[in-house]
Amino acid sequence: MFGTFELERSESEPVAFGLTHPINTFNPIEVQFHHLKHVLSTFYATPKFSSKIKVLLYGPGWHDGTPRTGLLEEIPTIATDVPPKKYDPSVPHIFNIYVLVHFVLVIIVTSLLMEYQPGELKFPMVCAVSGYILWSLTAFGWVFDQKPHAIGYEILRSITVCVMLQLTKQEVPMLPSLRIGLQVLHAISGLLLYTKQHEFSVSKITNEKMD
User: Fold this and answer.
1) What is the pLDDT of residues 71-126, one digit of tens each?
2) Residue ranges of the chain with pLDDT lower than 50?
3) H or E stretch including 151?
4) DSSP 164-179
5) The pTM is what?
6) How is 39-100 classified by DSSP, letter by letter?
7) Closest alpha carbon to 72 in 156, 2, 165, 149
8) Which of 21, 70, 113, 158 has its CA 20 to 30 Å from the CA of residue 135?
């Protein structure tokens, strides 16, 4: 159907998992939309209108003069003895623990903010919670990518969560001790990150030297 069928090979060959063009990021937005970005850039770079339409409808390897699904010969050769290097930057353990704890906190805060009776959930709250989840996952990706702005955005996110919990005090039923506890956890996390900025920067420089 897709023109990608290939007969089983008689010789054994190790399997290399992943993409022919690896995505070196943990940013969920970039991971989800990187192919769309590639398609659109190819669309604008293609001269003929008919070819532009084919860029949108045909396979990702298609270009003028090739079949609908592209040519197998143009797929980059993967060296079986030297597989592609996995994108796995070394991050200090404290940041791995931080992201794990805050991922759990995202689940808890989201569950509490969405604690409404059927029919009572308001659209602005849905948008706010959705934005909070997306922001959190993106910020976690930045931490693992060791982006220069990652720490600043994470501190800002922790402050935002504290404010959001306070502003929803009347609307969202929650034990005062639980609300205060979550705010304290996020405040402490922000202070911890502030004190770890130098360690974060040193780790990034070390990874760049190793590459």
Assistant:
1) 777 777 777 667 677 788 888 888 999 999 999 999 998 888 877 655 677 788 88
2) none
3) helix 150-167
4) HHHHTTTTS---HHHH
5) 0.77
6) HHHHHHH--SHHHHHHHHHS-TT--TTS-TT--GGGSPPP-SSSPPPP------HHHHHHHH
7) 2
8) 21
Domain ranges, ordered by start, for the chain: 28-74, 93-205
Q: Return the axis-axis angle of helices 150-167 and 197-210, rounded to nearest 10°.
A: 140
Are the C-beta atoms of residues 4 and 69 closer than 8 Å to each other?
yes
**What is the distance between the alpha carbons of residues 116 and 13, in angstroms, rounded to a whole number?**
54
Distances (CA, A) of 57 to 37, 48, 49, 50, 198: 15, 15, 13, 11, 48
Q: Which two tokens stand for residue 79?
A: 């060296």
Query: Rounded CA gap, 28 and 157, in Å?
Result: 17
Long-range own/partner contacts, residues 11-17 (CB < 8 A, 24 or more apart): 13/80, 14/80, 14/83, 16/78, 16/80, 16/83, 16/84
